[in-house]
Amino acid sequence: MKSFQKKRGWRNIMQSKPVLVFLGILVFIFAWGVVGFMGKMQSTIENRKIAEEKVLELQKEKDKLSTGISKLKTDSGVEESIREKFGLAKDGEGVIIVVEDKNSAKVPAEANTGGFFSFFTNWFK
Questions:
Q1: What is the domain extent for residue 17?
Q2: Which of 21, 84, 89, 103 has its CB 3.0 to 4.6 Å from that of 93, i.e. a possible disulfide?
Q3: Are 62 and 56 in contact (CB under 8 A)?
Q4: Nearest to 19 by CA among 34, 9, 31, 7
């Protein structure tokens, strides 16, 4: 009988209000920690995606630069690079330079800037 009362004594202590309040607070603290951990995990996943995109971008740039380097190791690649940078031509070739006409861009702008009276003055000219 004493062992039964002893077991029941522990049950009474575990089911008392102060112990239950303490356990409730402890569960709340753990739940709050789990929620905070989930938020940090989401931000970590987003940061990982950003880092992977940067790695892919840098890998593409590395491939582009390595092809440029391998191209510059050949004579034709060096010649092409010099032509692009300095606008040079071989003997017997000519270089064409295209220049935009700045006056043609101003004409439509001037025609649209007139008002009601300028329409009549231009009409009678």
A1: 2-90
A2: 89
A3: no
A4: 9
